[in-house]
Amino acid sequence: MNTRFKSIIAAVGPNSSGRCNCFGLAKRPRLRHNRMVELVERMLDLHKQLPKAKTPHEQESLKRTIEATDSQIDALVYEL
């Protein structure tokens, strides 16, 4: 696990209500920005892989991963 990922994991934690505050990035603009860039790059890569998927299973798996990544982006944007 690389250092950047460890710092993001370390930022995860519940807020005062006991709910996760989207990776603990609410008060860390640089981490929030880096996480957003990471998610968008991942999304672009996934969309490039989709037409290359050879089996229906691969396509479905990529589609699910795209949906999950999109949800993570939405949660991060909502926090802004």
Q: Give the terminus-to-terminus CA distance.
A: 27 Å
Spans with pLDDT under 50 lasting ≥5 residues?
Answer: 4-21
The biggest beta sheet reads: none
| Helical segment count | 3
Strand tally: 0
- The number of domains is 1
Instruction: Kindly name the structural category.
Output: mainly alpha
Shape: elongated
Series of secondary-structure elements, N-terminal to C-terminal:
HHH
Helical coverage, percent range: 55-70%
Radius of gyration: 15 Å
Overall residue-averaged pLDDT value: 77
Strand content: under 5%
Annotation keywords:
mainly alpha
Quick summary of this structure?
This protein has 80 residues and is an all-alpha fold.
Please tell me about this protein's structure.
The protein has 80 residues and is mainly alpha-helical. The protein has one domain. It contains three helices and no strands. It has helices spanning 3-11, 29-49, 56-79. Helix 2 packs antiparallel against helix 3 (56-79). The radius of gyration is 15 Å and the shape is elongated.
List the helices and strands and how they pair.
Elements: H1 3-11, H2 29-49, H3 56-79
